[in-house]
Amino acid sequence: MWYPLRKLGLLLLTAWAAITLNFLLPRLMPGTPADAAIAKLAQNGPVDPATRAAIEAQLGVPTGDVWSQYVQYLGNVSRLDFGVSYTFFPQSVSSLVLNALPWTLVMVGLVTIVAFVLGTLLGVLAAWKRGTWLDTLPTLGGTFTSAFPYFWTALLLVFFLGYTLKWFPTSGAYGLEATPNLSLAFIGDALGHAWLPAVTILVTSVGGWILGMRNNMINTLGDDYVTFAEANGLRTHTVAIKYAARNAILPNLTGFGLALGGVVGGSLLVEQVFNYPGVGYLLFNAVTNQDFPLMQALFLMITISILLANFLVDILYGLLDPRTRR
Amino acid sequence: MSLLEVNNLSVIYEPRGAEPTYAVRNASFSLERGEFVGLVGESGSGKSTLGFAVTRLAKAPARISEGTILFDGRDIASMDEEELRKQRQGGFAMVLQSGMNALNPVRSIRKHFGDIFAAHDHVPTSKRLARAYDLVEKVELPRDVLDRFPGELSGGMRQRVSIALALSLEPQLMVFDEPTTALDVLVQHAVMGTIRELQKSENFTALLISHDLGVVLESTSRVMVMSEGVIVEDGTSQQILHAPQHEYTQMLLGHYADPRAEVVEVPGLVVRGLTISSTGLGSALDAVSPKTGEVTAAPSAPARRRPGRPEVAAIVVDDVTKVYPRPRRGSDPVTAVDHVSFTLDQGQSMALVGASGSGKSTIAKLITGVERPTSGTILFGETRVDTLRGKGLRGLRQEVQMVFQDPYSALNPLHTVEYALMRPVLNHTGLRGAAARTRVLELLDTVGLTPVEQFAAKLPHQLSGGQRQRVVIARALACDPQVIIADEPVSMLDVSLRAGVLALLDGLRVTFGVSMLYITHDLLSARLVTDQIMVLNQGRVVESGQTAQVLRFPQDPYTMELLEAIPQPHRAGAGR
Q1: Mind listing the domains of chain B with CATH numbers?
Q2: For the whole model, what pTM was predicted?
Q3: Which SUPFAM superfamilies match (chain B) (predicted)?
Q4: I need a surface site. Which of B21, B126, B440, B538 has the fewest CB within 10 A?
Q5: pLDDT at A326
């Protein structure tokens, strides 16, 4: 019982630190958002007091001391109130993020998990059948596909499967005429759109998992407990799964945690290539348009999602490895 | 009919991209039911390969190239996998060398037993728990180990668990491959005792593979000796002990001696001479009047005093205690060293002996300034070691050098011997260019690695264990230290190489006036190369004095226990 509580405490502490940093960093910069906007206007001529007042009213001027601002900020964060986006005015930042998040979580998140599971299984098989075609094919294939640059694979797939063969739509998350709802027709449409980006991520990431798992597994197969299990005449699948693979997967969990944490922040390239309306797409827009409220909220969310993923992996470790529970 | 009949068995290693080599050549022997047989040889002799072959555990690149293995009349060399797997229940079982790692770290002990019962179905489900309890009790473990994970057990307990697991197969033949090598002396003694008792009570046939002829002779009734893949001798323990035929067996036996004896002699090693010769060891060691038990003569040849050094003791340790903080939540702080005081003079050699966890390595860390004592003072000459920082520590490292236990990992595999020795010469002596190189070659000559030019160009993997340890010693000598701390310098080496390295260490003391702190659990080597001894138990000095005196007439029960735990070939057959 101790172990998960300790990890939860650690999660809350780091999350608090991340939120506080997110609050402090902009305040360490000189000036306010209003000052910046006014300075830009001032390059074209003098700014009259009415304009200045209007801009300050729109962007807000800090009032009170840092402490009261901090308390107010914490309150806003707990209500998921991150202000109004500059780019997509008058939409609020949180509504933008909440609209983008499901697309990324479902598509990228699911593919990341599928890639890990598939890669691990293939890796186990490759190591167990070392030297046969079951080893050579996934190992060589994995090395080959994981060396492809991401966008190149994406372009190839778009060109052949999307443009030439017209099997899949080449961009967006759903058809132009559709509006998001939970009807079967819409879900089918969304799945059709998800195929190409999903396959691209799968092709480029599964090789790493295969190779990693295969190498770990080959190491554990040489360990004494595997030899001893064989000497005791345990069934083949018991030795392969419960003795060798069970231990070989442990180091890979850390990598899996990092990959899961990177789902939210790391999908920028995918979503950009396929015009997929997820978090990465939103982040790209926020950065190019200097949309500070949106950026701040997204950075915070990326941080929190990495922390959450690490927490999950820690808990998983605790379940799988008795040595970490102490 | 014999239980196991091995005919003309050869095992070949066929690594990819390298020449195949024979690990076992034309081995033929048989084991009778209920017999306890030993298989002895040094590293690389093929004894483990043979053990793996007869239990059909040899994996690629090893392959049985010819011969038959008849177990109970059936040839297991040509059995298919599934048949072999079933055969393992009620057939042959194996206990591995590093039994500490033979258990799956993520499975509880209970599940280990469960896996075996599930695989063979030889015990009805309702009786499995009772059988598991019965088995752990047989190996003298409490019942609650079943609920523990391997990481929560000590090395000795883990080895006992793997013996119990092997026993759960109800084997007719048990192969023990170095079952106690990785264990602490006292634990080793106890586990061997358990194995002997089990063999008698369960009456299985046992094959004990070991590099330690002492252990084997103590336990078995028949011994096979292996050298370079060939069984060179096969006879009863008494024959092997009293009338060894093969020169290899004679050589192995020659390296055993009782550290309690009046005269201790090991071939090739003269402890108290200026030169290394093969005679006159015992008489020079000590002259003891048998009636009073007092050591009357000073034991060692005088060491040369080093020029230009103040005439003070090399190291004075005064009332030193080291307490480590709690290793984990809920446990107590560990007192590794508990009020220890001693003085090491120039040119003196002192042994620190004790089981693991006795604090002997911590003392080495304190003297080298790696750790700081919690209380007490350590003087090197006139410098306080326990408060040194930065530059002072660097100066200390020139004077106090370490020789480590494992010569296989103490040298960077990517650099030549010359490079390994050049670093300390450049860093500590200020020599440059040709002078530095001359010094390196001189060092190689000192440690007996000649022709020096050839050895300088070699990489670590081209050297034997003993040669590597010589390079490590040369490296320690490079900055002309006053004190050498040797931490189990020969425990990883084959018996035949040990004497040479020990003689070298002792020669350094005599010719260069170096002081040596010799950390070991091996009392025989302590007797051979040191004149003072301190026996440590749980951080406290339980006994100290002249080595010969302490080992011959021990006062403390712990010292006696350590002495008792040493395998004695001469006890062969005593227990049967």
Answers
A1: 2-255 (3.40.50.300), 315-325+332-567 (3.40.50.300)
A2: 0.79
A3: P-loop containing nucleoside triphosphate hydrolases
A4: B126
A5: 62
